[in-house]
Amino acid sequence: MSSKDLVIIGGGPAGLAAAIEAHRCGIRDILIVERDGELGGILQQCIHNGFGLHIFGEELTGPEYAWRFIQQVHEKGIEFKLNTTVLHISKNKVVTTVSSDAGLLRYSAKAVVLAMGCRERTRGALIIPGRRPSGILTAGTAQRFVNMEGYLPGKQVVILGSGDIGLIMARRLTWEGAEVKMVCELLPYSSGLTRNIVQCLDDYGIPLKLRHTVIDIHGRERLEGVTIAEVDQNGKPLGHTEQYVACDTLLLSVGLIPENELSIDLGVLMDPVTSGPVVNESMETSIEGVFACGNVAHVHDLVDYVTQESRLAGRCASAYILGNIRGNDDKAQAIRTKAGVGVRYVVPQIIRKSNISEESKLFFRAGGVYRNAKIILRSGENIVYSKNALRVVPAEMESITLKKEMLEQIGKTDDLTLSIEKQQEAPRG
Amino acid sequence: MITRKLTCIVCPLGCHMEAVLQNDEVTAIHGNGCKRGIDYAKAECTHPTRVLTTTMKVSGGEYPLVSVKSEQPLPKGLLMQCIKAVNNVCVRAPIQIGDVLVENILNTGVSIVSTKNISVCKDIGIAVRSEAGTTRKS
Description:
The complex is a heterodimer.
Chain A: E1 2-9, H1 13-24, E2 30-33, E3 49-51, E4 60-61, H2 62-76, E5 79-81, E6 84-89, E7 94-99, E8 103-114, E9 118-120, H3 123-126, E10 136-138, H4 139-149, E11 156-160, H5 164-175, E12 179-185, H6 194-201, E13 208-210, E14 212-218, E15 225-230, E16 243-246, E17 249-252, E18 256-258, H7 261-266, E19 270-271, E20 276-277, E21 290-292, H8 303-321, E22 334-339, E23 343-347, E24 350-352, E25 360-366, E26 368-379, E27 382-392, E28 398-402, H9 404-408, E29 415-427
Parallel strand pairs in A: 1-2, 1-8, 2-5, 8-21, 10-17, 11-12, 11-17, 12-13, 22-29
Antiparallel strand pairs in A: 3-4, 6-7, 7-8, 9-18, 14-15, 15-16, 19-20, 22-24, 23-25, 25-28, 26-27, 26-29
Helix pairs in contact in A: 1-2, 1-8, 4-5, 5-6
Chain B: E1 2-7, E2 16-22, E3 25-30, H1 35-46, E4 49-50, E5 53-59, E6 65-70, E7 74-75, H2 79-87, E8 90-92, E9 100-102, E10 112-114, H3 124-131
Parallel strand pairs in B: 5-8
Antiparallel strand pairs in B: 1-2, 2-3, 4-7, 5-6, 6-10, 9-10
C-alpha cells in the first residue's frame, strides 16, 4: 500500500478541475484514478459545442474543453491512472483500486475527492413492458457508439425524453442518415435548452410530442416498433390516444443519476433529492477529509459550473491536507439550507459560517416553470436576500451568491430557506 | 409578404418572434426581447447558418474517429452536403486539436478542424485494417 496526499476518484471535468486547483494550492502528491481509457470523462463524447462560455468566454466542443484541463494535468505532471476502477473507499480513506495492468492496488490518502459523475436512467428503471429486443439504448450510450466507436445504432429512431442528450442525439442521428421519427416527452414542457429544440428538432422537422410516453415495446430479436400514448396530469396513459410507431431504435433520455455506490459504501450522509452526498460550503461530505464535486454531488447542466464547484473542492481539500481549516467535527456554527416553496433542492446543504472566507454560492433548482418570479432567502421570518428572476425553470440550475455580511444577519435559527414566489406557469407533475 | 415565426436562441429566454418578409428582406420584427433578437431574426430569415460538429474517419489512430467542427458557421442549407463531404474523408493519425482537415469545404470559405488529439495506434493490427479504408489523406 502506498500513501498519497490527495486521491481523486474520476478524471472527468470535476476531477480534473479539483486536481489542478489542488496543485495550484501547493499539493503535489496527487493521484487521479480514471476507469476509462482516457481523461476527460463524458466530455469526450460530447462533440457538440456550447461548453466554456462562462469559464473561457468561448464556445467550445466537449473534447476541446476537456483538453484545456488535460493539457494542464500533463504540464504540471499530475499523476493519473487510466483503465483503473476504484472498488472501495474505507472510512480511514484507504482507496482500493483494480486494473488489468497493475492488479489490485491500495492507496492511503489524507484527503479524497469524489468526482465519479453520473449514469443514465435505464428502461428497467422505467418499467416499460415488452420483450427485450435489441435496439433499445440510453441516449448517452448511443452517443458513445456514434461519436467514438463509429457505429450507427439504427435507422428509424424514436427518442423518449426531451432533455438535452435526447435532443442532441436527434440531430446527430439525422446527420448520420437515420430517420428520427419523434421525440416523446412525459411532461408538458421540455427540459432541454431552447437552442436545442430549435437546432435539433425544428431544423429537421422532428416532432416533439409533449405529455407523451412509450407504453409498450414490440419485437423479438430486434425492436420493431413502440406504442406511445398521451398522459394525463398525473402521468397516467390515456387509452384512447395509443398509437403504434414503427422503429428499430428507441433512445432513452430520461434522467441522470449520480453514481454514488462508493459513497454509500463509505457511509457518507446522502441527500435523497440530489441523490448525492450532503456537502457543506467546502464541498466536504459528512466524513472528514472526503469531498464531492461535479455530477456526483448533483446533476449539472453546464460544465462551467462543474469546473467552479470542483475548483472549490480542490481548494478546500488542499486546505484540509495542509491543516488550514477545521474538520467536520465543529458543528457549532453549522446552518442547514432548506428547499422552500418552489425549490427542489439547494446545494450545499450545510454552511459553516466560520469557514466562509470569500463569497459562497448556493446552487438550486426550481420545482416548476416560473416567469417574473422572486427568489427569496429567509432565516426564520427575516428575509436575508431576494432577487427578481425573469425566468426560472427546473432544467436550468441557478445560483445566488452568499456574502459574508448576509450571513451575519442570520438569527439563532439554524435554517436558511430558499423559496421562489409569484407567477407560476406550469407546476411539475 | 410572408410572416415567419421563430424562436430566438441568442440567450436562454428564447423569445418567440415573428418576422415579416417582403421580397426576401426582413421589413419588421415582433416579439423580440432585445436588440440581439433583431440581428438573429434577420440572419435566420435571410441567410441562416449553423456550426457543424461531427466526426471524421481516422486511419492508423488509437480511435477510429476524430471529432471535428466547422471553424465558422456554415450556410444551413449546405449542412447535409457538408456532412456527406466530411464522411468521404479519412484522415491519417496523428492528429492535433486545431488541425485543418478539410480546407474551404464546398467552397464556403470555411474549414473543418479537429477538436481532439488522436495519437498513432500502437496496435499494428488495427492500424493496417484502418489503412485499407483510407480514401485520401487531407
